[in-house]
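Worked example 2:
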Amino acid sequence: MKDKRKIIYGLIDPRDSQLKYIGKSVSGINRPRQHTKPSNLNRDTPKINWIKELLSLNIKPEIIIIEECCSNEELNEYEDFWIEYFKYIGADLTNSCWGGKGTPGYKHKKETLIILSEKAKQRDKTKRLEIAIKTRKPHIFINGIESKKCAKCKQIKELTFFVKNKKEPRGYSPYCKLCFKLINKEFREKNPYVKLTSEELKKVYKLRGKRISESLNRPEIKQKFINSCKKSLSVENLNTREIKQYQSLTDFTKEIGGSNSGASLAIKQNRPYKIYKLKYTGQMT
């Protein structure tokens, strides 16, 4: 199953346990694992040179999940924050920019996606048929039950003991479920990642509440943040049509138990937030 989590992750140097890189991913832990692929090591950047140095010593960077996000907008905002924060406390990061500069990926039009899907289906069918003709083996039946030989443990088992795989000629993985779990476990041991403990997360969240932009010689971010906090808010309940005024967006989200980022995004996109229609009415006096 594909990992579709939106996360902020970090790469750690296993030699001294120092954080060296912070990035974002819309494919969970799959994205950070791509950094060590040879095809991604062609450029000359601080991050790539550091990874090449590790690989020359037969070691890989450790991966930690710093935070999980709900939207692409949060990804950009949180990546920017964490890079600022760790640089502020003295981390020697290899990031070449402040963060939030990347994109979640190019989105094709619906018509293009349909064409690409049809071509992929036809290509896969042709390829599977060629493989099946070349590698097809006679079926094994034990007491009238169709069975298969596992490629790892070499035992003959019923098909119910195998993982389904449409890409295989007979529609099943070459490994039984037990061996499949062992293979995955071995892979995880060779490619470990570290997740923050609950205590570490509590410390991080406390620190995050204190925006540190004002200490980083970036007055434009500080001013933008201050201006957004000063705006008063008009809120209309779409069910009761009741209209209430709030001194700030934070006051509103605290009352209903929402998030500032989600409410702010709803205002920008001119759409309802939960059962409320939000609108800035001006600056606080």
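Residues 210-217 have pLDDT under 50 and may be disordered. The two ends are 53 Å apart (CA to CA).
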